[in-house]
């Protein structure tokens, strides 16, 4: 395997991805192992009311308080990410993944979880790769693999996340942040 496992890191779409949910996306890798990888697109808010899908959770969601498209796989399912502060123990229905980032079981009553977490985001679907697929995509230039910062996962301005993540990288990667949306207009 040429690309290292990327659990807990960000995949930032290169300009080579020109369409679809992954265009200019920032994906948090939740798990990456020999069997494949799963992640969530962090910067695709969608016009879907959380309360209509998961009553009780909408009042606890981080801003913008809307659903996000986590990826193209199983769009009829929902995943919740929460931030567990510091070294706090995991509240009921929460499983820490890495650092402060944890998955929340959305069947858990919100009042049991909400007071114990610092942030909440709900995603429809997820991104998934079979064994070796993500490594191949990284090797062929579809993704930049970079470290996250604490505000990336629950940013209140997800529309600018792709540019912000790229701008904080060392040169020459930083320059990609100014790549035009439509290269023909360059």
TrEMBL record:
Pfam families: DUF179. GO terms for cellular component: cytosol. InterPro entries: AlgH-like. It comes from the Bacteria. Gene3D superfamilies: VC0467-like. Belongs to the UPF0301 (AlgH) family. PANTHER family: UNCHARACTERIZED PROTEIN YQGE (PTHR30327), UPF0301 PROTEIN YQGE (PTHR30327:SF1). This is UPF0301 protein ATL31_1946. It comes from Phycicoccus duodecadis. The lineage of its organism: Bacteria, Bacillati, Actinomycetota, Actinomycetes, Micrococcales.
């Amino acid at each position: 395997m040429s690309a290292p496992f990327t659990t807990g890191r960000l995949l930032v779409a290169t300009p080579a991805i020109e369409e679809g949910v992954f265009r200019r996306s920032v994906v948090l890798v939740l798990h990456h192992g020999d069997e494949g990888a799963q992640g969530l697109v962090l910067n695709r808010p969608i016009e879907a009311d959380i309360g209509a899908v998961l009553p009780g959770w909408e009042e606890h969601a981080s801003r913008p308080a809307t659903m996000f498209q986590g990826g193209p796989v199983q769009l009829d399912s929902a995943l919740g990410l929460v931030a567990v502060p510091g070294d706090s123990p995991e509240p009921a229905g929460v499983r820490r993944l890495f650092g402060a980032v944890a998955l929340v079981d959305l069947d858990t009553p919100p009042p049991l979880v909400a007071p114990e977490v610092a942030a909440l985001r709900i995603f429809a679907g997820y991104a998934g790769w079979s064994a070796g697929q993500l490594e191949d995509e990284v090797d062929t230039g579809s993704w930049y693999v970079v470290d996250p910062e604490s505000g990336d996962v629950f940013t209140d301005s997800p529309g600018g996340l792709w540019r912000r993540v790229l701008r904080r990288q060392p040169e020459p990667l930083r320059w990609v942040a100014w790549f035009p949306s439509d290269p023909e207009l360059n």
